[in-house]
Specification:
Distance between the termini: 138 Å
Keywords: Membrane, Transmembrane, Transmembrane helix
Order of helices and strands: HEE
Structural class: mainly alpha
Length: 143
């Protein structure tokens, strides 16, 4: 019986610790929700997008040469470049069928093969080798 009460007391203590540890998480979540609601009720100004186009053009100026011994009353015009944009439309070529000449057969005359006379094979007589008698070896004495 004492063992069962110890188990129950230990289980109660564990559950109480789990509840006490998770309470701050619940409270923090509630605070975050209230802050988010109050922040969403305030209107925020949204910037508008506008396009500002600035074009700069250069004014033609005259350039005077450096002074020399003799005065020159002429002015030199300076060319200025002004960019212009033009749209050029191009036509995309289409595939067209071009007829091509096909190879044709050319007939050429050829000679027919003729019989070539050949000699029949002949049998040549062969000479059979003849055996010559030889003397048996003899003993020789050395001096």
């Amino acid at each position: 019986m004492v063992e069962i009460t110890n188990r129950v007391a230990r289980l109660r203590r564990t559950l109480l610790i789990i509840i006490l540890v998770t309470l701050p998480c619940y409270l923090l979540g509630t605070i975050v929700l209230f802050v988010a609601r109050s922040a969403s009720s305030q209107l925020t100004m949204t910037p508008t997008n506008s396009i500002l186009v600035i074009t700069a053009t250069q004014v033609p100026t005259s350039t005077n040469p450096p002074p020399t011994g003799y005065p020159t009353p002429t002015a030199t015009a300076t060319a200025t470049a002004t960019p212009t944009f033009t749209v050029t439309f191009t036509v995309t070529p289409t595939h067209t069928h071009t007829p091509t000449d096909l190879p044709t057969y050319t007939f050429t005359a050829t000679d027919l093969p003729t019989d070539t006379p050949t000699l029949p094979p002949t049998i040549a007589p062969t000479v059979a080798p003849t055996l010559e008698p030889t003397l048996p070896p003899t003993d020789t004495l050395a001096p």
